[in-house]
Amino acid sequence: MLLVSVVPPGIEEVAAREVSEVLGLAVYGTSAGRVFFRASPRDIYRANYLLRTSTRVLVALANTSFSTLKDIRDVASSLDYREFLAPGRSFAVRAERAGKHGFTSIDVAREVGAAVIDSYSSLTGIRPPVDLENPDVVLRVLVRGSSLLIGIETSGRSLHKRGYRVYNHPAALNPVIAAAMVYSVGKSETLLDPMCGGATIPIEFVHIRRRYP
């Protein structure tokens, strides 16, 4: 299956290297904020557990371009969701949008949600329940410019929320960015952070060098 590591735009090259070196998997390609790689179902767990430059890991269902909101709905309508949405399991659509469009992320979520219901119902004769608060399956729709990515969420909460923090200061450096900085400096075993505040960079450095998850 095709997985997507969702990353902050600008660190795709570093994130792709992490996929290759840490997971031992071949990178299929990259685009703004996304690293694509082929993997087994077992690798989904490994990716979520080991990747430090990723904010989310998705199972890619569609990766294409579009012009209108109708195009997005048409793409969503063409997909088969039965592998990921068993009868009786609820779902929700979470949409994110970047760029100038004549619609909102709420519009995207509504149209894709309707498309999922139509597609699933036509194939199974069963209408899948929608649960916006506590769904069994989350469908992520990422719109950036004219690019469209539809995928199944595997991470739950964002992976940038590290377990080692007892308090998240509003001005703290994003740990994902810190991890990308560490990977960018090479294999050195020594780190000097002269502007150390919340120690995000040193903590990420230790986790990466010691191969802590």
Structure characterization notes:
The protein has 213 residues and is of the alpha+beta class. It is built from six helices and seven strands, in the order βαββαβαβαββαα. It has helices spanning 12-23, 41-50, 69-77, 105-124, 175-184, 200-209, and strands at 2-6, 27-31, 34-38, 56-65, 91-98, 137-144, 147-153. Strands 2-3-1-4-7-6-5 form a seven-stranded mixed β-sheet. α3 packs parallel to α4 (105-124) and α5 packs across α6 (200-209). The model has no long low-confidence stretch (mean pLDDT 94).
Describe the structure concisely for a colleague.
By secondary structure, the chain is of the alpha+beta class.
The count of helical stretches stands at 6
The whole-angstrom Rg is 19 Å
Order of helices and strands: EHEEHEHEHEEHH
User: Which structural class matches the secondary elements?
Assistant: alpha+beta
Strand order of the largest sheet: 2-3-1-4-7-6-5
Assigned CATH class of the domain at 62-139? Alpha Beta
Number of β-strand runs: 7
The CATH architecture of the domain at 62-139 can be given as 2-Layer Sandwich
Low-confidence stretches: none
* Main sheet specs: 7 strands, mixed
Question: Would you give the CATH topology of the domain at 62-139?
Answer: VC0802-like
Strand content: 15-25%
What is the terminal separation in angstroms? 23 Å
Shape: elongated
Helix content: 25-40%
Average pLDDT taken over every residue: 94
